[in-house]
Amino acid sequence: MRSVEGKWQRKWKEAGVFEPKVEEGRVKYFLTVPYPYTNGPLHIGHGRTYTIGDIIARFKRLTGHNVLFPMAFHITGTPIIAISERIAKKDAKTLDMYRSYISYYVEDREKIEEILESFKDPLRLATFFAEKVQADFEALGYSIDWRRKFHTGEPIYNAFVTWQYERLRQLDVVGKGEHIVTYCLLHKQPEGEDDIQDADVNPVEVLEYTAIKFKLEGSDISLLASTLRPETLLGATNMWVNPEADYAIVEFKGEKLLVSKKAWVKLTHQYVEPDMRVVGELKGAELVGKTVETPLGQKLLILPASFVDPDNATGIVYSEPSDAPYDYVALVELKANPRVLEPYGINPRVVETINPVKIIDVPGVSDHHAKVVVEKYGITSQLDEKLEEATREVYKQQFYSGKLIVDDPDFKGLSVPEAREKMKVKLISEGKALVFYELNRKAFCRGGGEIIVAKIKDQWFIDYGTPWWKDRTRKLINEKLEIIPSKYKKAFQDVLEWVEKRPCARKRGLGTKLPWEPEWIIESLSDSTIYMAFYTIVHKIREYNIPPEKLTPELFNYVFLGEGSAVEVSEKTGIPVKVVDEMRNEFNYWYPVDHRHTGIPHISNHLTFYLFHHTAIFPEDKWPRIISLNETVIREGAKMSKSKGNVIPLRDIAKIYSADLFRFYIASAASLESVLDWREKEIELVLDGLYRFTNIMMQSRNVNGELPSDYYGRWFASKFRRIISDAKKSMEALEIRDYVQTTFYQVMNLLEQYRDLVGEDYLKAVKYVSKDWLIMLNPVIPHLTEELNELLGGSEFLSTSEWPRSDKYPEDEESEILVDSLFSLVEDVRKILEVLKKPASRAVFIVAPEWKREALRLYREKKGIKTIIEELKSKYNLRGRELEIVEVVQMFNKNPSEEVFKTSSKKEYEVLEYSVKFLEKKTGLKIEILWEDEARARGIPRSEKAQPLKPAIYVD
Ligand SMILES: [Zn+2]
Description:
CATH architecture of the domain at 206-439: Alpha-Beta Complex
Strand content: 5-15%
Number of helices: 34
Distance between the termini: 52 Å
Shape: globular
CATH class of the domain at 206-439: Alpha Beta
Number of strands: 28
Enzyme class: ligase
CATH topology of the domain at 206-439: Isoleucyl-tRNA Synthetase, domain 2
Largest sheet: 10 strands, mixed
Protein name: Leucine--tRNA ligase
Radius of gyration: 37 Å
Bound molecules: zinc ion
Helix content: 40-55%
Subcellular location: Cytoplasm
Catalytic activity: tRNA(Leu) + L-leucine + ATP = L-leucyl-tRNA(Leu) + AMP + diphosphate
GO cellular component, one term: cytoplasm
C-alpha cells in the first residue's frame, strides 16, 4: 500500500484533479477545515479532523458536486515569536524540542542545527512547518487545492484582514476601553485561549468572586475573604487561613486590606489605584487565634486550614460548613486533632462549640447538605481531590432548588441565586466588599508565563454583545445553520448568549496591524473568522501578480459585497476590469461555505466568532450552512501528551502505517461524537481486512464479470443496490463509521455468503461490482482503490468518477428475504443437531401452505379470529382444522414480521428446492423439501408447525 501511495498522489497532482474551476450551473460544495497553526508538527489528533474533512470532500466529488477544499496556514499571534525568542536565548528545553521536531523531517545533523538557528526568525519557523504540514497532508492523500494556500503573515492576507476590520469598525462593533482579560505576568500583555497551555481541551474561565472585608479586632486592618457564594455569609462560623502562607497588608483607598501576597499582585492588575501599596507582611500563623467581625456584626475566630490556597483568589476564606464540603471536612478534622491548635494557644473546647448552621433548605436533604455529600463520597481529608466534585454537586443542587431559611427578613425565603445577587449588591454598595476576579484553574501561557485576570484600561475589543449582531447570529444558529452531530447545537446557543466583549488585538505578535492604530496586532482568534472568503480569490491574486497595495477596501467591497462597480475599482487600483470581475465571480460562485468541519473544542471560540463575523459582514445568502464536529483522539486508553511521549506525529503515519490504513482506521474506529482510542491491535485487524479485500479483487482480475438472473443473482444484486443507497445516506448524515461498515464490511460479508451459495463463481460477482465497490471505498482509501481500478483495467481516475447508479442493480426484496432465510435455516439446523447430540443423516424442510400466509394477512387487516376462520374454512377446505388457524396467528403474534407479506409460499418452496445442494453442503445432511400437506400425508411428526418463512424442520 505504501508503495503505490506516492504514485497516485503524483498523478492527481499532475492532472490537477483537485483544482476546481467555476462552472456556472454546476452544483458546488465549498468545504473547509480550519487552517493549522504552524508552530510545530501536527499529530494524529489533528489528523482525524483533516482526514474526515477529506473523506467528505471526496464523497461530495463523487456525488456530482464541484468541490473546493482549500488549505492555508495560521501563524498569527505570540506563540511562534515566543519560541523564536527562546531559541535565540538558547533555552535548552526549547532547543531540544525543536531539534527533535526538525529531525522528523531532516536527517543530517548539521542541517538540523542550521535550520534550528534560522528559527530565530519567527517567519522562518512558521514557514518551515507550513511546508512540512503540507507535505504531511499530501502524503495522506488529502484532495486539497494547493493553489490557494497562503499564510496569515503574508501582506496580501494582511490587506484582506485590514478590509475586514475597517468594515467591523464602520459597523461600530469594535471598541476600546476598560476590559477584563486573561493576562500573562511574564510577557506583561493580555493572552487568550490560543496562547494558554491546554486551553483548547481544558478551558480557562474568568470567575467573579465577592471579596468580603472582615475587620480584625483591635486593629484597622480588614481580612479580605473571597467567595463565589456571598449569601453563605449568613451561615459563617469562623475564618480559615493557611498558617504557612505569606500574607500582605495592602493600603487600598485609605483602608488596610489583608490578602495573600499572591493576591496582592492580582489586585494591582485589577484595580489601578495609584497609591495601592504593601504596608506590612506576615505569616498566616500570626493570624490564627485572633477574632474578626463580619459585615453583619458577628464575631468569628480565625482557625488554621491547609486547604486554603494562597494562590487562589485572596487566599483567605470564611467557613460555612453547612453548605461547603471543604469547610465541613476542615472543621471535622480540626475537632478530631485538637493538638493542631496547641501552638496557637486556642482552647480546643472553643472549637468544639463551632457547629454548622443550616441556612439553606434543599428538598430531600434534611441534614447539613455538605455533611450528606461528604459522607456519600467517603471524604475524610480536606486535601481529598473528590472535594471538588462534592462541592460542584452541592452548589449545583442548591443553585436550582435551594431556598434560604434564615431569620433575616431581607433574605428569608429567597432562592439561592436571588440571595447571592442581593448579598453581593448589598455588600459592595455599602463598601463592605469588592469584586475580585480569578481563573477557574491555574494556567500558564505557552511561553511559561503565569496567567491571571487583569483589567486593562485601553484594550481594543470586539463587542459580541451588540444586540443587533446577536440577533442576526441567533437567527443563523437557530434557523439556518445545520450542526452535525445535532446535539452540539445547544452548546452554540449557550455560547451565543454569554459571549460579550472580547479583546481582539495585542501589542505584540505576528499578524495584521489594526488599521487605525498600527501599534496593535489583530490576535489569532480574531483574524481567522472569514478567511474562507479569501480562498475564493487568492489564486487569482497570485495568477495576476496583484501586489498587496492594490488590494484596497474598494476592491474587496466590490468582490465580496458587490458595492461599487468593477470599472470604478479598476480605475482606482489599476487592476483590469476583467480580473476584478473574475474575482467577483469566483467569490459569488463558491460562497457561502457549505460545510466547515472541525474539533469540538472550537465551539466556544473560533466557530462562534466565525458565525458572528459572517453575520456582521455578509448578506444572509452568504452565511455558513453546515458545521460538523468530531471528538479527540487518545492512544491505548490514555490521553496523548508530550510529557508521556505517546504522541504520534502525522509525519510518521504514511511511513509506518500507510495513508490508506490510517484513513480507514480513522473513519471506522469511532463515530464523530466519540473519542477515538488509537489501538495498535485494532489497526492490525483493519490491515487484515484490507489484505483480504485486495486478494479478492486481484483474484477477480481475469474472470468475466456477470451476475446471473437466478434467485441468488437477484438476491445479490438487490442487496448491493441497498448498500449503494444506504452508504449514500450514511455519508450524507456524516455517519462515516456506518459508511465504512456498509461499503466495506457489509460487502465483504455479502460476498462471503454468495460464495457459500455459488462457490468460486462468486468472483464473477466481485468483478461485476468491482468498479462500483471501488468507487464507494474511494473516499476512505483513495490510493488502494485507484491502484486496484487500474489493475482491473480502469483507465480513468476513480477520484473524479461518479457515484454508482443503484438502478443498475434490480430491486428484488422477495429474493433478498428468501435467500437470507436460507442462512438462518442453516443456523436452525445446527442448533437442532447440537441439542440432538446423535448423528443424523437426513433433514426434511416442510413449507407452510399459502392459507397460512392468508390467515396472517387477514389478521393484519384487523379481522377477528372468527371471521378469519370463516373465510378460510371453506376456501381452503379446512373444516375441523380451526385450531391450526388459531395457532398460526398466535405464533405470528409472538414474533411478528413484515417479511412474511412480501413473499409467497410458492416462491418460498421454489427457493428451498433450488437450494438443496447449498443446504446439504452447509448442514452435511441429505435434504428433502416438502409441502406441509405432503409431509402430513407421510406422517412426518409436527409437520403442522410449519410457519410462513419458518419451515418445520424434521431431522432423522
Ligand atoms: Zn505569556
